[in-house]
Amino acid sequence: MKSGMNKDMNSAWDKIEILAPQGLQNFSAYLSAKPMPVHDPQVLDFLAALSQALLKEPAYKQHPELVALGFWLRPAHIQQLINQPHSSRRKALGLVVHFTPANVDTMFIYSWVCSLLMGNANIVRLASAESLVKDALMQCLHNILLQPKFRELANSNVFVSFAKESPMSAQLSLCADARVIWGGDVSVLAIKALPSKPRCRDLSFADRYSAALINGDALQTDAQAQAVAELLWRDTQAHAQQACSSPRVIYWLGSAAAQQGVFQHLNTLAKPSAERNQALNHVVVSQLTQSLGDATKPLIQEAICALPVAAVQPDMLDWHLGHGMFYLVAISSLDTLLPLLDEKCQTLSYWQVERDSLLKLVEQASITGLDRVVPLGRALEFSPVWDGIDMFSSLSRSLVCL
């Protein structure tokens, strides 16, 4: 029996594909890689080089997600993140294993950077789904990690791919000092069920959705309607609206006079990248929702779909496949928003809503799910505090020095 198990494991090791950096060492060497100091200068230099490549090299400019990542990685911004005060001294945990989502090409890089800044060695398992963005990013990482000055990083950080059903997920879980798990609820629970070290920390980022709150009473001109549409497009265009922080629900406060204008402008922005299949998906979701009596006729159903609904039911979120599908819910006051923000709602972006009044509302204990409140147009901006989890703290050890 033991011999059979070893044979299966050896076979699994042979099927690991190293995506970056390639050709430096055997995969098994990464399991015993040593951590580095927190905020190590080599790490800061590496992130600066990665930022410069993503922002300046023509090959990456065709991918907005990579340009946004490059902007986030600017040295000034990274310095701003690590300069925030900490209550204690910190050290790396050790080896962090990352399980990444299949539907958002670059999200895992942000959590990997947080782990890297905390000095950890990292094994990042990427989903096997084909993606031009993923391929471009892996090539960029490979090229930079091959530079001699980053050899220590290259020997302690690796990006791999293997089949979802491979026993390697279980093997890596036993080696991990922390697991960062991105994915749907079922995938997250499957990884968490795998045995791990007694002190292994799990950071889980499961199914969430997000919403936007727009004050219709403040929309007076067509120029304003166009500006709101552009902000919505900024929050949904990248990752085809499938990022957990992209708004899928629009809560419309007050006058509905400008609704048609906003979504017409948004439709115009979406047309160049629209595909026939997404239009068919919009029709199916609209008809399903209307058949249950939960929706009226769409305001628009072309490159995007704006579907007025009385409330958002769980099934409607399961049907939502991204690509410009918006559930539109009319509300008469901020107070009516309170029962609508369930535990699955992650981010609420807002436009022309008094910030203090909004914060006073969402800080109420009855809201159990909302973790982020940001201006419209900034829903995709990543912060080291994500889903209510402080990644810097969670991916490091605090030293108490009395």
Provide structural commentary.
The chain is of the alpha/beta class. The chain folds into 2 domains: about 1-205 and about 385-400, Aldehyde Dehydrogenase, Chain A, domain 1 (3-Layer(aba) Sandwich); about 210-375, Aldehyde Dehydrogenase, Chain A, domain 2, CATH 3.40.309. The chain is built from 15 helices and 17 strands. It has helices at about 1-15, 40-55, 65-70, 75-80, 105-115, 130-145, 150-155, 170-175, 185-190, 220-235, 260-270, 275-290, 315-320, 355-360, 390-395, and strands at about 15-20, 90, 95-100, 120-125, 155-160, 180, 200-205, 210-215, 245-255, 300, 305-310, 325-330, 345-350, 370-375, 385, 390, 395-400. Strand 11, helix 13 (about 315-320) and strand 12 form a beta-alpha-beta unit. Helix 10 (about 220-235) packs across helix 11 (about 260-270). Mean pLDDT is about 90; it is low at about 1-10.
Brief summary of the model shown:
Helix content is 38%, strand content 20%. The protein is an alpha/beta fold and 402 residues long.
Describe how the helices and strands are arranged.
Elements: H1 2-14, E1 17-20, H2 41-56, H3 64-72, H4 75-82, E2 89-92, E3 95-99, H5 107-117, E4 121-126, H6 132-145, H7 151-154, E5 157-161, H8 168-175, E6 178-182, H9 185-192, E7 201-205, E8 209-215, H10 222-236, E9 247-253, H11 259-270, H12 276-291, E10 300-301, E11 305-308, H13 314-319, E12 325-331, E13 345-351, H14 355-362, E14 372-375, E15 385-386, E16 389-390, H15 391-394, E17 396-399
Parallel strand pairs: 3-4, 3-6, 4-5, 6-7, 8-9, 8-13, 9-12, 11-12, 13-14
Antiparallel strand pairs: 1-5, 2-17, 10-11, 15-16
Helix pairs in contact: 2-3, 2-6, 10-11
